[in-house]
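User: Okay, second chain of the day. Same drill as before: sequence in, structure tokens out.
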Amino acid sequence: MAKPKTVYFCQNCGAQHPKWQGQCNSCKEWNTLVEEVISKSQDKTWEASGTSSQNTKQPKAFKLSEISFETEDRIITKDDELNRVLGGGIVKGSLILLGGEPGIGKSTLLLQLCLHLSIKSLYVSGEESSKQIKMRADRIQKTNDNCFILADTSTQRIFNQIKKIEPELVIIDSIQTLHTEMIESSPGSISQIRACTAELIKYAKETNTPVLLIGHINKEGHLAGLKILEHMVDTVLQFEGDQNFIYRIIRVQKNRFGATHELGIYEMQSGGLKQILNPSKILISNQEHDLSGTSVVATLEGMRPLMVEIQALVSSAVYGTPQRSSTGYNAKRLNMILAVLEKRAGFKLGAKDVFLNITGGINIDDPAIDLAVVVAILSSSHDIVLNHRFCFAREIGLAGEVRPVPRLEQRIAEADKLGFEKIFISNSTKVSNKNYQLEIVKLKSVVDVVEYLF
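Assistant: Same drill. Structure tokens below.
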């Protein structure tokens, strides 16, 4: 009997090594190599489960001019937030990976997707029994005879059921629980994840059936096996949120059929996840009393304009070294803005503690948030209340100048729709002559902002 072939996989990046060594050559991490059996038999593929590919045509090379392009055929779901994030719907034949923390709502989101579709779908769960999934469906208060549930982890048995049902959408919960008879390693290992995903990719591409995978995350907050999976799948989605809050955010990190950095927002309720069609209203607090240290920024997440509230707190440093803390904003950029305020505008904040928070629990990398951060810090430092109907959309340079930001028209239109009175932009920005109800204020530098507001 031939000895099974074994190799060593890095559990951090998935790199393959012929023998054990202390350090991975790829990611340079120590003590991450684990021995795994990579092959047991060569005849156990998804075609062997009932779908024969003997008559599959051999691939042929074409000239680029001979290839006809057609718009991707997509499945339009009842979930507008998911449609936006995916670029207009689920592309047929694509493989989508959804990751997130335990208990965040990944299974609920995809079960809702199955229950609201009119096409035949198969929900495969390797973590829950069929009765547990039925209980969740009862909480969602939705039923659908086109939704089939399968509680199994063997890819061979799963493909047997796929042959009988012939679904138009397959959901796997989760990829780390699947195992194939081709590999002797335990479920969740690098070789098992790669082999199972390869079988699902072959099935999706040859049958033009979309497959959605749920992925676990590790203690660092990254998807387990992501370094392997993100190169294999077509789309990578990240489901974020805090279990102590009701709002959930879905982001796209990779999309071969649409734009990246899109954003979808949900509210977790007892009856499932509810779409937030106007997130600007939940990201701006409705205060009964005017308070200092707050400002509103007109930002963009993908193609969606958002109005987000910035909160700042400036106080005298109790300890020797002043604290600089930010939530949802780049801490290094905060230090840069504080240096610009001290050098260019003359504000002495070196002996002050500065705390910054972006409401709603979201992270923003848009440079247009700079001016709103400056205004919120100065408002808290001088304890001056700003008009809550003012908003900002400008980037701050190291020389203290105010720089223009892209796609300003969308930001102004969103602020005008929500009833803001003024928006502060760069004086070098050209704005089309539209009948906006709000006033557009153009300023040149941080000094002009200080003189105008404070």
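The CA atoms of residues 179 and 187 lie 5 Å apart.

User: Thanks, on to the next one.
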